[in-house]
Amino acid sequence: MNFKNYISELKKRNIFRAAITYLVIAWLIAQVSSIVFPAFNLPTYFMKSLIFVLIIGFPISLIFAWVYKFSPKGIEKTQSMKIEKIKTKGFDHQLQINNKKLVVLPFKNIGSDIDSNYFSDGLTEEIIIRLSGIKQLDIASRTTSMQYKNSELDILSLGRELKARYLLQGTVRKHNNELRISVELIDLEKDSELWAKIYRGKLVDVFDIQEKVSKKIVKSLQLKLSQKEKIALCKKATMNIDAHDANLRAREFLFRYTKRYLLLAVELFQKAINLDPKYDAAYAGMSEACGLLYETHDRNPDWLAKAEESSMKAIIYNPNSSEAYSSLGLVYYNKNLLNEAFLSVEKAISLDPDNFFAYWVRGRLYRLTDRDSEAVNDFSKALDLNNNFHTVYGDLQMAYETLHDEKNLQKTIERAALFYPNYLLHHPDDSRAHQFYAFTLKRLGQLEEAKKEMQKGIEQNSNDPIIIYNAACFYALIGEKATAIENLKKAIDNGFRNYNYLIHDPDFYSLQKEPDFIALMESK
What architecture is domain 242-457? Predict the structure, then answer.
């Protein structure tokens, strides 16, 4: 450490203040003693001893001030200078390496309508999408940014964690047709605000505001754009604000997986398509929703046909749509066209390396082809990109079980156990999450708590075939065979039709010799 750093550290620990305070007090004591001691005829060595003690106490007081500090909590040990230096130096080094990395924090909805959260989230994602095509700019992915929606980290800690130099944050107030968006760009290295602006307008002005914010960032960071990048920066997915709004609302429900939410997503995606027949993002979303409906709730081939048609239309209107290719991959997965599915999801990943859905589909393809080691990598990647896509926890656990990797299986279970309570705090109506948490608690041996979580999921969607099927799996695993078979019958009566999966589901191995289970399978 150089001389300036030492001086800075001395100031930080209040050494100069401690020294001055001590000398003043010592001088007062000496002055008072020089008057008092003679008055009481005390020997002269008393004064000499006192001065000696005061001299010895000076360096001791400085050492004490260096090591400890006074705080509202009492006397505390001062943080090591060496550690502080390492932390600061490490952060500076990270910023130098990633001197063009930007994090767009989820915009906060400060309006009175909490249901408008989908709109502020959509605004965040749209700005990230616009900026992600700029080669000179390293931008955190949409899924990475959204993980910090409710983070309590201060901006410097967040920048250090994400190894970013720049941070964009803002607020959104949406009331009826009126819109107020405030935006701030911060240079974390200099801990200074590059610019801040408030945009006001009508709801339809959101597209222009997105473009203005993106251009302002480019100008502030002095980025040089190619002609292609300039065009992409100004490109609008749709000019119809109602279609845009419907698409955002649909995506809010898409990955909750229950039949009710998926049907609602389909309805909203269709509304967006009706309003803008060339809206590629809405077609890609429609494909995902229909593909998931077919796979998990209703084996009607019309859903799969609709999913394939929608993904193809999305590709026609936007050949670079990563989501269109990943949704097409899900279609081929369900058609058992594995080669075509692999090609589709790999194309999706090449267009957007942060497409978590594509990694999830490819991971499932790897599992089908007995490549569980590769599946683990893709599932882990999907979870890293979107921690809220919690269905991956189950896939990851099954892959580790197949690999007999007990160590990583246990780590995944423990990670899920930490994730679900916080997730359910913010999404209490996610019935599948309650059920997955129940499976996690069961694995940890907390059976009574597991039963309570399973019951919560059932009560929220008591007629959803997948919810009831999951309940059947759970009760079979804990040895309550009659309850398991009863739920399985109800799941089939409510529309579960994936009999091939049911017959090979390892959760039901304990039921294979049960007469009621055998009769149920024979009737199908």
Answer: Alpha Horseshoe (1.25)
